[in-house]
C-alpha cells in the first residue's frame, strides 16, 4: 500500500470508504469534516492506495498539546493485512515530528474489536469520560 497525503480529488472515494466502514454518523457530515481538516494540518490527513484505489485513510491532528486520530478506515476487503497498523504508524510519525508528546483518540464504547486493535498498538484507556458539545449542526451525509 502506498501512503500519501489526501488530495481534494480523493473526497468522494474517501467518503465512500468511511460509509463502507461505518464511520459516518448523522451528526457529522464527512464532507464538512474534510473541508475543516484541510484548513489545519492537512499533512496529517493520509490515504492508502492500492491498485489506484483508496483503501485506507486516517485523519490526524495536533493542537499543540495533544495529537488526535480520527477516521481510521481500511476497506473491509483489505482488513486483517496490517494496513491499519501501517497507515497509523505513518500518522503517528508525522504527529511525533511536530513535537507531540501524546496521541488521543475516541472509540465508541461498544466497538470492542477496534478497542482491542488500538490496545495492541499500545493505546490505553485513560480512564476519562469524553464530553462533547455541538457548535454547528452538520446535517445529513451526501454522497
TrEMBL record:
SUPFAM superfamilies: Acyl-CoA N-acyltransferases (Nat). GO terms for molecular function: acyltransferase activity, transferring groups other than amino-acyl groups. InterPro entries: Acyl_CoA_acyltransferase (IPR016181), GNAT_dom (IPR000182), YpeA/RimI_acetyltransf (IPR050680). Residues 1-143 form the N-acetyltransferase domain. Keywords: Acyltransferase, Transferase. Coiled coil: none annotated. PANTHER family: ACETYLTRANSFERASE (PTHR43420), ACETYLTRANSFERASE YPEA (PTHR43420:SF44). This is GNAT family acetyltransferase. It comes from Desulfonema ishimotonii.
Amino acid at each position: 500500500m502506498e501512503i500519501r497525503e489526501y488530495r481534494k480529488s480523493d473526497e468522494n472515494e474517501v467518503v465512500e470508504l468511511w460509509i463502507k466502514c461505518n464511520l459516518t454518523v448523522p451528526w457529522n457530515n464527512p464532507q464538512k469534516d474534510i473541508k475543516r481538516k484541510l484548513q489545519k494540518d492537512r499533512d496529517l490527513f493520509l490515504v492508502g492506495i492500492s491498485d489506484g484505489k483508496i483503501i485506507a485513510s486516517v485523519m490526524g491532528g495536533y493542537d499543540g498539546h495533544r495529537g488526535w486520530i480520527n477516521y481510521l478506515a481500511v476497506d473491509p476487503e483489505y482488513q486483517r493485512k496490517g494496513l491499519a497498523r501501517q497507515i497509523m504508524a505513518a500518522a503517528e510519525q508525522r504527529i511525533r515530528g511536530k513535537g507531540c508528546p501524546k496521541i488521543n483518540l475516541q472509540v465508541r464504547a461498544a466497538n470492542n474489536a477496534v478497542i482491542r486493535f488500538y490496545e495492541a498498538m499500545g493505546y490505553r484507556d485513560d480512564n476519562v469520560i469524553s464530553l462533547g458539545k455541538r457548535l454547528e449542526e452538520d446535517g445529513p451525509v451526501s454522497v
